[in-house]
Amino acid sequence: MALVGAAGAGKTTLTEALLHRAGVIARPGKVEDGSTVSDHEPEEIARGISLTLSSAPFSWKAPDGLAYDVTVLDTPGSADFAGAVDAALAVADLAVVVVSAVDGVQAGTHVAWRLAAEAGVPRLVVVTKEDKARADFHHVLEDLRAQLGDGFVPLELPLGEEHAFHGVADLLSQEGLEYEPDGKHHTTALPDDVADEEHRLHDEVTEEIVSHDDDALERYLGGDEPSAAELERSLAHEVRDLEAFPVLVASGATGVGVDRLADLICELGPDPSDRPARVRAGETSVEVSVDPAGPTLVHAFRTVADPFVGQVTLLRVLSGTLRPGDRLLNTTTRTEERIPGLFRLRGKEHLPLDAAPAGQVVAVAKLTATPSGSLLAERSGPGAAMSAPALRPRPPVYGLVLSPVTQSDDDRLSAALTRLVAEDPTLVVDRSSDRTVLRGLGDTHLAVALERLSRVFGVNVSTSPVPVAYRETIRRKVEAEGKIKKQSGGHGQFAVAQLRVGPAPHGAGLEFVDSVVGGAIPRNYLSAVEKGVVEAMAHGGPHGHPVVDLRVEVYDGKAHSVDSSDMAFRTAAANGVREALAAAGTVVLEPIDHVRVTVPASAQGDVMGDLSGRRGRITATTSLDDGTVVIEADVPQSELTRYVLDLRSLTGGRAELEVSPGTYEICPDHLVPS
């Protein structure tokens, strides 16, 4: 199951409580102390938040008498690390959406809910922090229904709230569960102030559950009251079919409701065999049965860099049984991988395994040719032609220029960045210019990546903002003479090129025209003239920016039978272009990016006003069925350096941003950078 929700909702504390109640750890750790199983990386401990996906398996014996194997995938709540949520939901059978009883439905709750819905993952809601001041379960339940839609089925009510929270009322069995300090509970009579509400909600929940089953509904209307066990079985089918979303209440800090949460996760959550994995076979989506005896097919959904063992790959076994020594084909890279020792990750702890049947999440070290999102299959089986569905694209919206501190750092930077991107595919390395630019989803995203670059890979860099890619073009058409005449003994340098230089159509780059007649410039030197023009354009104009959209016509010149050369004509042509640019002057062109912002309708006016204040031109607005609005605009790149951070502040984290390169336009004179 994937634990998802807003940052600070209590996901990691809840994971600790589940592990402690299952007997896996002697006592639960605390986020504040940096002692939790999930948040074990130094960057997480320093910030007190989850920054990556963490695995925490445990075993649980539920009231139905069955023993369950549960793997918790604890995910970050920050938008900067949404890639980890995507990876967890790609393999989860159940998404447990954690909502704080204090803060209610937040921007991160909306995001988590929408991502789980898009992934088609069944959902269960747990309201945490019921023991904290200002906790209000009923307000949260109202918010869920008002902001996220229908289908929420409360299965519990809190007994007491804030510091008086001491138990839960089970709406299905109509019993009170009183909790002891050790996290265990015993049944008790419901207090009078809860009993009436509990009975009313029991009837509502019962009607909601049986309404999805015609036979059960007919029996219920005939006076046959279903038992709590029957209601749970019916509800489990509705959870699997995305028709109902149970709402539970718990406190990870005190342990109240945690064992009940584990029970219902096991009894209501779908069995892996009920949710066959979907993969791609060419252009077709196909189902893969969860069969331990079937052909082996494994999904590598996340990699992490371990400073001691190197790359560790998290795997979900979709079919068959994975064993150490197996040789499998990576269907993406077509490379054969040998599976070394298997283990399960519990935070940073490695738990050795002899075999992993279908449905289980395991880890393997040193699968160097298996990036995140790969499938591993038997070379001769049907899986060899399959591939994993692509994750939701997350274009980078924030970047920094990296400069190695030492030559040793420079030598190792490229390999280290390759491993960093393999671990987190939402990071992008841009080497399109002479700079190395690292791009990601926000400032914290890049800050953490650079800390890991230093700590794990031993590569230190300094950073600077990504410069705006200004360009220049000539203002008007002029004639210029480029020449070089040098004599210093032996062969000299002599070349003269007569040029007409003017603006070319937007986006044309360089239009080079040969109008020389009579052999004034020998034909074998014309290519050197063109190279000289290209070099001068790349060197930059009077403002220091590369020159674009230039029409250069060479119409005359002079050559010497001894002293002329390719180098001489290249130099002469470059001098001529520089002379023309200085004589005619240039205009500075600024890049205009296309921005696509998805926001709640309530924030539409604020976002559009902010874009206009950034010299943006709104090109389209589209209202979507989910109550959001898509705003498209063309905005100068210079106005977008920190836009993703400002946008999150403006919208309370409810906005999604996509930025794509657009065109170039003339920069106003008063904004031309000096």
TrEMBL record:
Domain Tr-type G per the UniProt entry, residue ranges: 1-273
CDD domains (alphabetical): EFG_mtEFG1_IV, EFG_mtEFG_C
InterPro entries linked: EF-G-like_DII, EFG_II, EFG_III/V, EFG_IV, EFG_V, EFG_V-like, P-loop_NTPase, Ribosomal_Su5_D2-typ_SF
Gene Ontology molecular-function annotations: GTP binding; GTPase activity; translation elongation factor activity
SMART domains per record: EFG_C (SM00838), EFG_IV (SM00889)
Gene3D superfamilies: 3.30.230.10, 3.30.70.240, Elongation Factor G (Translational Gtpase), domain 3 (3.30.70.870), P-loop containing nucleotide triphosphate hydrolases (3.40.50.300), Translation factors (2.40.30.10)
GO biological process entries: ribosome disassembly
Keywords for the protein's UniProt record, in alphabetical order: Elongation factor, GTP-binding, Nucleotide-binding, Protein biosynthesis
Protein name listed in UniProt: Elongation factor G
Native source species: Cellulomonas persica
Phylogenetic classification of the source organism: Bacteria, Bacillati, Actinomycetota, Actinomycetes, Micrococcales
